[in-house]
Amino acid sequence: MAGQPIRVVIADDEPLIRAGIRMILISDPEIEVVAEAANGREAVEEARAHAADVVLLDIQMPVLDGLSALPELRRAAPAARVIVLTTFGERENVLRTLEHGGAGFLLKDTAPAELIRAVRAAAAGDAYLSPAATRHVVERLAGGREAARAEQARGRVAGLSDKERDVLALLGEGLSNADAGKRLHMSEATVKTYVSRILAKLDCENRVQAALLARDAGL
């Protein structure tokens, strides 16, 4: 890329939006807008025809919307890096963009300087996400960790007997031994015995750890 301008295709069904993006990008001497497209199908064709380095892709367009065009773009112009630039920052849009190989996600209220930075970053092989998009990704990763923790917890409690699972579930609700006994029609001493057995089986140091494990396992 040294010495060569970054070749950009702008895909948006609104001519005024395309014109505004073009004016921003061409203010950088190292960026060249090589084509414009009014729908996703044209975006695929223009990116392939002009060997685009970066495609700025709107989501809501006729003929073929941006998210549907994205995987086709990745096949037709594999060297092109795709940045979704849209008014709609919903979590699903962000995640689908990344799942389909998008290199960035920006909202249309992005500052001009940030748009230029995003194009430069994408051309250099980096990902560029707006703060809102980054937040969605962090939430998704956190959700993934929660899913892994839940699966691990379910595996740990799988070896408990039905009655032990019942007692553990009540620990997860924060019940005392006495209250758990009333719920399960057991004496407090019997519940205490079950709790000791559960802690040993689950390798938990105390009932708080066991309660957290119960919550993670969905009991």
Automatic annotation (TrEMBL):
UniProt modified residues of type 4-aspartylphosphate: 58
Keyword line: DNA-binding, Phosphoprotein, Transcription, Transcription regulation
PROSITE patterns linked to this entry: HTH_LUXR_2, RESPONSE_REGULATORY
Record flagged with keyword Transcription: yes
UniProt superkingdom: Bacteria
Pfam family, one: Response_reg
Residue ranges constituting the HTH luxR-type domain according to the UniProt record: 153-218
PANTHER family for this protein: TRANSCRIPTIONAL REGULATORY PROTEIN NARL-RELATED, TWO-COMPONENT RESPONSE REGULATOR
Name of the protein in question: Response regulator transcription factor
